[in-house]
Amino acid sequence: MEKWGGDSTQVIKTGKYLKLLGVSVEISSDLIPDLKGFDLIHVFNIQTSKTGIQQMRHIKDYGIPVALSPIYWDLRNIDRMAAYIYPYGEKKIVSILGHIHPLIPVMARRIVKYPIRQQLWKWSKSMLEMADLLLPNSYAELEVLALLFNAPHLRAKSMIVPNSVDIEEMFNESNIACEQVKSFGLPEEYVLEVGRIEPAKGQSTLIKALKQDKDIPLVFVGRGLNTSYGKYCVKLGKDRGNTYFIDEVPHDLLSYFYRGARVHALPSLRESPGLVTLEAAVFGANCVVSYHGPVNEYFGTAAWYCNPLDTESIRSTILEAWNASRTYELGDRVRKEFTWENTAKSTLAGYEQLLSKQTKRLFE
């Protein structure tokens, strides 16, 4: 997997813990995989529907039951946001149009992207219809799917399987790894954001929000520092001072960054719900999240919520979390509910239910 993200983690961890339950698992990213000898196929992510639809058609032609984890975000709110379309003036023409009127580049993008988005939407809907079992990460995601794709019948073939964290991996101590993190020279406590450096994750907005609060260290960990947006964020960080950027690190190294985080902030425009927030909570970080995504199902009242497009909302929320005593309520909940062991058990229950139905149909 060249571009590792939350969907990649979900695939790998689900497979790992299903194996511990005695399930024979093989992971493949092939468009036309060899399906001989398999009882069931599990496909992940309808956002990559250009390739996903080819896999689904191949599976259905072969006649094997298929489970689908949609991992879907409603992106319509992002397409209407000028701050996302041209957050840093990467393209001169976009910047010029934006100065004429902030909605011009938004509408231009929507017009250009419309045919592509429509085709991807059709493929995504086909994947949902073709699946024998849906395993969304939250009830909120399921409702978005049912309403956005005008398909209320999807509810009847769905089971909710929450995202999780690997507690065992995160507490696997390594002196070498610890020394490697120390070499970055980070302060004792800081506001941390882990994730790809991209406009939707809101790194630039976070830096701007805390521009005047230079006594609070800011730490960013993630790939994308060499992109136009990444370079823009680095420039903002240098102007602010007391801001640290660290390129992508191995996942098992993240725990050492979480340990120093007094606050983990993710002012993102799209999360489902944000695995890094769950991970940070395990280490006692006070977590600031945006109100986009299935946040209440995962975080309840144990997190601080902000408007990801409002710098004053981000600032006041982070300051409140920074000045509050560390709360372990969310971390305790994550340890109890959002583990890959539980995810694997729920996933296996879905598999068994699906295979039972398939067997029953054969004998009807």
Characterization of this structure:
It is globular and about 65 Å long. The chain is α/β, with parallel strands linked by helices and 364 residues long. The model has no long low-confidence stretch (mean pLDDT 87). Helix 11 links the parallel strand 5 and strand 6. It starts with 5 loop residues before the first helix and ends with a helix. It is 49% helix and 10% strand. A six-stranded parallel beta sheet has the order 6-5-4-7-8-9, sandwiched between helices. A three-stranded parallel beta sheet has the order 1-2-3, sandwiched between helices.
Principal-axes shape call: globular
Structural class designation = alpha/beta
Distance between the termini: 42 Å
Oligomer: single chain
Rg over alpha carbons: 21 Å
Largest sheet geometry: 6 strands, parallel
Query: Residue ranges: pLDDT <50 for 5 or more in a row?
Result: none
What is the percentage of strand-forming residues?
A: 5-15%
SSE sequence, one letter per element: HEHEHHHHEHHHEHEHEHEHEHEHHH
The percent of residues in helical segments reads 40-55%
| Overall pLDDT level | 87
Main β-sheet, spatial strand arrangement:
6-5-4-7-8-9
Count of alpha/pi helices: 17
Total DSSP E strands: 9
